[in-house]
Each structure stands twice: as C-alpha cells, then as structure tokens.
Design the sequence.
C-alpha cells in the first residue's frame, strides 16, 4: 500500500479541484512512513477548503509534526461547525491526550452536528467523564444526537453504561432512538430476553425508518446476544421496504460473517437495484476479508 502512496499519480491528485479527492490523498499520505511527503502536505494547510486544511493538519500530526497537532487541536475548538467536526473526528482517530476536554466542550455546542460528532467521539474514550457527558447527551433535544449518544454508550468499555440506556428505553418518545438504545444495551451485555418486548414492538411498527434503525442497531449485539439478534434481523429481510432489506444485509455481514453468504447471494436477485448493489458490496467485503 505504501508503494501506491509514493506513486506520482497519487501525489498529483493533491492538485485535484475536488476537496474530497485532496482530503482522501492527504489521509493516505498521513499514514505513509515516507517523510518526503511532508513537503507535499504542508502547502495544503493554506487550502481554501476547511476539510482539506484539517486533513493536512492531521497528516502532519501523524508524521510527528507538532505544528499539525497544534492546528488540529485549534480547529477542534473552531467556531465553524464543519471545521470543528472534522477536527474532532481526526483527534478521536489519533487518540490525542487533549481529546477528552475538546469533546466535552463540543458536547455543549449550540450546533447539533457538533454535539453529534462529540457524542460519537466519546464512545472511544472509556473514562467516567465520557459516561457522564453521554448520559446528558442521551437527553438532547434532537434525536440524531441522542442516537449518537446511545451508540457510544454501548461502545464504552470497563464502565456500566446500562442505567442511562435503561431509562431512555422507557422515556424516549422517538422509536428510532429507542432502537439504538436497544443496540447499546445489547452491546453492553443486557440479556436479550429482557429487551424482547421492546424489540418485538419496534419490529412490528408501521414506520420503515424505525424498522431500518432496529436492523442496524441489532448488529451491535455482544457475543452472548448475537444468536437472538441474528434471528430477528433475518426476519426483517422479508420486509417490503428496500431500505430495511439493505440494513439487514449490512447487519448480517457484521453479525454472521461468512455465514451470511447464502442470504447475500439471495439479495443479488432482489427486485430493488439498491438492495442488489448492497448485496454485491457486502459479498466483496467478505471476499476481501478472506483474501
């Protein structure tokens, strides 16, 4: 892979007009062990696009340049929500020493997207402070932020995140949020039979978005809950809505690995183009893992 990062064509992509392309190349250069890339990365700190500047700072930080790390932490407190969100995601990925205070501050930002990014990042910081902040974000006014908090609470290790999740499953009025609360509880090791009534109620709802959320959330079940979770997810594959079947295929790949092959192959013959494309993508993913 490093040989590809050293290729002339790869480096020339830094001149591409699309910010997404330059961002992707910078991430690749940041993971390369070739120090000569630094001189290619540094000019991009002045790029007109926020996401490119943040990606350049991240790449330099990965190369051990304090300038890049400092700029990244500075961007993690920027007033621009896009810049702040991109920097926070990078800081979480880098697991820098100062990431927790930045996440805590971002969790109180007026912009929901920043609070959501903070919630997602806190799932990778298994410290008591993260549990406290995520418990607060689980009561955020906006459902997307609460979903991110529920997912992250499930991811916390060495901490019992079940109490706030148990409370949310009875108090949250948004069914999609409750689906991800269930996922968080299952990931934390809550017994499946304790959650069966809530799972059954959500799987039978008339709202496709809720059934989709449930299919996605059940993929987070811990080892002891996976067998029961797989059974529910498989029943959802007969759903009439393509978006639900798409979520099922993705979740079963996570839950079953190669055991999901027969259903994925069945998905290749689905009447919906997007479902067939998803089945093909998941089959390719499994093939790459095997290879």
Sequence:
């Amino acid at each position: 892979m490093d040989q590809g990062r050293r290729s002339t064509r790869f480096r020339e992509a830094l001149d591409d007009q699309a910010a997404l392309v330059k961002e992707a190349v910078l991430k690749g250069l940041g993971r390369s062990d070739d120090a000569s890339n630094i001189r290619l990365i540094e000019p991009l700190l002045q790029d007109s696009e926020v996401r490119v500047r943040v990606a350049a700072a991240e790449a330099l930080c990965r190369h051990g340049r304090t300038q890049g790390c400092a700029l990244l932490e500075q961007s993690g407190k920027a007033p621009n929500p896009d810049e702040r969100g991109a920097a926070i995601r990078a800081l979480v990925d880098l697991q820098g020493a100062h990431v927790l205070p930045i996440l805590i501050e971002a969790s109180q930002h007026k912009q929901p997207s920043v609070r959501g990014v903070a919630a997602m990042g806190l799932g990778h910081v298994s410290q008591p402070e993260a549990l406290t902040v995520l418990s607060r974000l689980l009561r955020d006014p906006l459902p997307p932020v609460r979903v991110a908090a529920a997912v992250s609470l499930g991811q916390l290790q060495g901490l019992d995140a079940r109490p706030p999740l148990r409370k949310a499953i009875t108090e949250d009025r948004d069914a999609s949020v409750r689906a991800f609360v269930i996922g968080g509880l299952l990931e934390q090791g809550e017994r499946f039979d304790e959650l069966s009534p809530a799972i059954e109620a959500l799987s039978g709802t008339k709202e496709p978005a809720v059934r989709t959320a449930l299919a996605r959330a059940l993929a987070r079940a811990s080892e002891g809950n996976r067998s029961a979770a797989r059974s529910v997810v498989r029943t959802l594959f007969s759903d009439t809505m393509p978006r639900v079947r798409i979520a099922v295929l993705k979740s079963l790949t996570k839950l079953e690995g190669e055991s999901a092959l027969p259903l994925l192959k069945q998905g290749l013959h689905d009447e919906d183009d997007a479902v067939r494309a998803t089945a093909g993508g998941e089959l390719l993913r499994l093939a790459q893992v095997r290879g």
